Amino acid sequence: MECNEELRQLHRLLQRKTELEEMRAALREKQRKLAPELKERKRSARAEQRDVDRLERSSITALVYHATGKLEQQLASERAEAKAAQEEYASAVRKLEDIESRLQDTEMQLTALETGQQRYEQLLEQKRNAIKAVCGADADKIIGKEQTLAFLEGQITRLKEAYGTGRTARGAVNSVLSSLEHASIQNSLARGRGLINDLASLRDSLPEAQSAILSLKEYITGFEAKLAMTSIRGTLNFHPEELAIWKPGLITSSLATGSKIHLAEEKLASLQQRIDRLLEQIRSEIGQINRKLQKNRDSLEKMIVNMDWPA
Fold first, then answer.
1. Is residue 224 a contact partner of residue 305, using CB atoms and an 8 Å limit?
2. How do the residues of the chain divide into helix, strand and coil, expressed in percent and rounded to 5?
3. Are 19 and 105 in a shared domain?
4. How far apart are CA 54 and CA 79, in angstroms?
5. Which one, of 172, 173, 167, lies nearest residue 271 by Cα?
6. What letters, b where the CB count within 10 A reaches 16 and e where it falls short, cover 67-102?
7. What secondary structure does DSSP assign to 123-168, as a single string?
8. Are the beta carbons of 8 and 309 closer than 8 angstroms?
9. How far apart are the first and last CA of the chain?
10. What's the pLDDT band for 287 if we cut at 50, 70, 90?
11. Within 10 A of 286 (CB to CB), how many other CB atoms are there?
């Protein structure tokens, strides 16, 4: 069947696309690195030429060398250095021009492949549907692969949701730490004034910090719930009731309050580190599953291309 042969030809052609994309990335990196080198070569060539020009004119430098009888020797040396610098600059220019030419050619090839990509995807989908409609062994293989892809995509979705929730929880912990820092400063000022407890300066900062600590429970519980739906295992063991730094109507010394704030800061910093470790595990897991996903997608495409097109 003509469509089947066209699909296989396009598949072979598009294998070149990945190579071209990698080549384009490499050329762009070379172009980026060469730009400052070219600028330096140009600056050096101009500087060396200025040295030659100064000696060729009746400058003070030229007169000094002339008086010592070394003008021609120095001029020959400066001209040689200027020539070498100019040649190095010209070489860098040619190198950049070659990179830009190859980059342009690569871009043109990739642009030409875009049309082929669209036609390939169209034919691949037609053939996939045709094979599945027959309900044979080939259809079962395709469906099995599709189920694997759906499972992996579901894992990615759940991991990304957990990651987003974890980032939010981490931000909430950071916010509470800022509140505790403010409360600690106010408490230190109260102690500096020699008061048992300066209610005027602490009546806002302590309740706000305590309220923020209690509100963390919702964020942490939400993160743990999302985490439980993934392959990542870990609990944060957060108990906000253990971090009491203030209670209504209870007056404590600024020293005792400072100790409580310091303890809360230590525990929250530890909590933040545990969240960071879990976030790193999630990122790593997403990377691994993405690689599996791409491998299975490529495998499914190759499988469909190599199957016979149903009559």
1. no
2. 85, 0, 15
3. yes
4. 11
5. 173
6. eeeebeebbeebbebbeebbebbeebeeebeebeeb
7. HHHHHHHHHHHHTSHHHHHHHHHHHHHHHHHHHHHHHHHHHHHHHH
8. no
9. 9
10. very high
11. 17
Cα separation, 98 vs 47, in Å, equals 26
Reply yes or no on whether the pLDDT at 249 is more than 50: no
Indicate whether 103 and 206 sit together in one domain: no
pLDDT one-digit tens code per residue, 58-75: 666 656 656 676 667 777
- Same structural domain, 124 and 166: no
Question: Distance between CA atoms of 51 and 73, rounded to whole angstroms?
Answer: 14
Residues 55 and 162 in one domain: no
Candidate from 152-166, 199-213, 223-237 with smallest mean pLDDT: 199-213
Determine phi and psi for 68, rounding to 5 degrees: -90, 0
* 205 within domain boundaries: yes
Statement to judge: residues 209 and 159 lie in one domain: yes
Tokens 């070498």, residue?
A: 84
Q: Which amino acid is at 227?
A: L
Q: pLDDT tens across 258-270, in order? A: 677 777 788 888 8
Q: Which two tokens stand for residue 138?
A: 């080939």
Q: Residues 198, 259: one domain?
A: yes
* pTM greater than 0.85: no
Residue written as token pair 């097109």? 309
Split into its structural domains, the chain has a count of: 2
The domain boundary, picked from 80, 107, 134, lies at: 134
Tell which residue, 263, 282, 246, has the closest CA to residue 170.
282
Please check whether residue 311 lies inside any domain of the structure: no
Whether residue 183 lies inside any domain: the answer is yes
Which residue range forms the structural domain that includes residue 166? 151-298
Per-residue pLDDT, 17 = 83
Query: Does residue 187 lie in a domain region?
Result: yes
